[in-house]
Design goal:
The protein is of the alpha/beta class. Helix content is 43%, strand content 14%. The protein is built from 18 helices and 15 strands. The protein has an 8-stranded parallel beta barrel, surrounded by 5 helices. Strands 6-8-9 form a 3-stranded mixed beta sheet, covered by helices on one side. Helix 11 packs across helix 12, helix 16 runs parallel beside helix 17 and helix 17 runs parallel beside helix 18. It starts with 6 loop residues before the first helix and ends in a 5-residue tail after the last helix. 53% of the residues are buried. The structure holds beta-D-glucopyranose. Beta-D-glucopyranose binds next to loops.
Length: 500
């Protein structure tokens, strides 16, 4: 019998994502010792990240078309089940307003941030996803990029962070093979408009989480079906076809970008989670290998090797007849990204259970402090980075997201100040492990904290705060938290070559 999960549990795991081998050399060092040895290269990029739908607001401003998230929140009230409220990001944290974002940029400066990863809302640029370009939408990001550069902050542009134009969803969205051309056309516009000033582009954010977990669960909710988690083998495997459209679209964008010779770099952001088996038994080891294959290797192999891992391909093919055109695979092989962005939040611990999808039972988070995105395990970041180094020819890597929220256990407001010790520890410990990976040869070039601001956390609405800057969602007042000062201190000390 499959286990019954309640909806909260389901979505918690869905966002947590699935996640590989134990860390070695740190075992003899305390985390304090690791931190004291922490020294990042001079050109290490200190950044922070956001995504359009989560912060911008202005959901109908200046000719913007609707995105699927506008529809989910305004029409399907998708947050209701989890928050008990019909929340939308129609205003979000008002970052569409230049007066507001200029203050936000000032705060970034104050923290010592050098690089800002943001995403573009496709339906601002192309209200219908294809066809007419909306000049006002283009102008918004033009101005934002200029304003960032004027403050010496590098703009890093994610082309797609989950907010598909509704008009394209009406045509079948990512299930439609034409989606590859829709995306390639949109990405070309982005390169043409912003490629003179933006030198780092990210094609997609987290194909695994978005296409294989979040979207299917939302669609089930909208269809009044009971969301199934983990997804059934059949529905999961079917969605692998959609995710293949992301992969080809990504490779096409890389190819087009290179042909334009704009002098920058282009990569993709993947959700990466190292997977650990409960025991060393053959069965648990198989569960680990499969989870790693489904969550990590499927995407890393596709974009860095131009192939899908044979064991997982065979597994999927026992369920669905999956065929990938040789021309698609050679497009991927011939267009590897310049860098890989990894989003690391938590590891995945598994054991074998033949009654579960693919024989994988995901084990619950063992921590007392239940972080929103799963177990806090900084060594997992080290393990993930070292595995990418060893298995994929040591590509350039950026940590494009890493961060945490703990709800009421953290983020405590006293005398107008916000204390978030748990988040401070999280940031320090993960940076120490990132640094340890660099010292052991990983080609890690930068770190983007998720997130600078509290914002709209998808299906969890405003209830899950991940920011180092507190936002009062009623008044839009920003208040730097203790973690803001902590991150600023780390950056400063690294600049001064001081130990932490
Ligand atoms: C997503 C972000 C999200 C963060 C925290 C990542 O999976 O890219 O959009 O807010 O996790 O849950």
């Amino acid at each position: 019998m499959r286990k019954n999960f309640n909806l909260l549990w389901i979505l918690f795991f869905a966002l947590l994502g699935c996640k590989t081998e134990q860390s070695k050399d740190s075992k003899n060092l305390t985390s304090q010792e690791i931190r004291q040895k922490m020294s990042f290269p001079d050109d290490f990029v200190w950044g922070t990240a956001t995504a359009a739908y989560q912060i911008e607001g202005g959901y109908q401003a200046d000719g913007k078309g609707a995105s699927i998230w506008d529809t989910y929140t305004n029409e399907h009230h998708i947050t209701f089940f989890l928050t008990g409220e019909k929340q939308t990001a129609n205003t979000a944290i008002n970052h569409y307003d230049r007066k507001q974002y200029l203050q936000d940029i000032q705060l970034m400066k104050q923290a010592g941030i050098r690089s800002y990863r943001f995403s573009v809302a496709w339906s601002r640029i192309l209200p219908e996803g294809i066809g007419e370009i909306n000049p006002k939408g283009v102008a918004y990001y033009d101005q934002l990029i200029d304003d960032l550069l004027a403050h010496d902050i590098e703009p890093v542009l994610t082309i797609y962070h989950w907010d598909l134009p509704q008009k394209l969803a009406d045509k079948g969205g990512w299930t439609n093979p034409k989606s590859v051309d829709w995306y390639a056309n949109y990405a070309n516009i982005i390169f043409d408009k912003y490629g003179d000033r933006v030198k780092k582009f990210i094609t997609f954010n987290e194909p695994f989480i978005n296409q294989l977990f979040l979207e299917p669960l939302i669609q089930q909710g909208i269809n009044h079906e009971i969301p199934q988690f983990p997804p059934s083998e059949r529905s999961f495997t079917k969605n692998v076809k959609n995710v293949h459209h992301w992969m080809i679209a990504h490779a096409k964008a890389v190819q087009n970008y290179r042909q334009k010779q704009l002098g920058g770099t282009i990569g993709i952001t993947l959700s990466i989670s190292p997977v650990y088996p409960k025991t060393q038994s053959t069965e648990d080891f198989l569960a680990m290998k499969r989870t790693d294959g489904i969550h990590n290797r499927w995407f890393l192999d596709a974009v860095l090797k131009g192939e899908y891992p044979t064991d997982i391909l065979q597994l999927y093919r026992t369920i669905e007849p999956l065929e990938f055109l040789p021309k698609d695979m050679s497009l991927l092989r011939n267009n590897p990204p310049d860098f890989i962005g990894i989003n690391y939040y938590a590891p995945t611990r598994v054991q074998w259970d033949e009654d579960e999808s693919f024989g994988i039972e995901l084990l619950p988070n063992p921590d007392d402090n239940q972080a929103f995105n799963g177990e806090v395990y900084p060594e997992g970041l080290y393990d993930a980075l070292m595995k990418i180094k060893t298995n994929y020819g040591n590509p350039v890597v950026y940590i494009t997201e890493n961060g945490a929220g703990f709800g009421k256990k953290d983020d405590q407001i006293r005398d107008g100040k916000i204390y978030d010790n748990l988040r401070c520890d999280y940031i320090r410990e993960h940076l120490a492990q990132a640094n340890r990976a660099i010292q052991n040869g990983a080609n890690l070039k930068g770190y983007y904290l998720w997130s600078f601001f509290d914002n709209f956390e998808w299906v969890f609405g405003f209830d899950r705060r991940f920011g180092v800057v507190h936002v009062d969602f009623e008044t839009q007042k920003r208040t730097p938290k203790q973690s803001f000062y902590e991150y600023a201190k780390i950056i400063k000390k690294q600049d001064l070559k001081m130990p932490l």
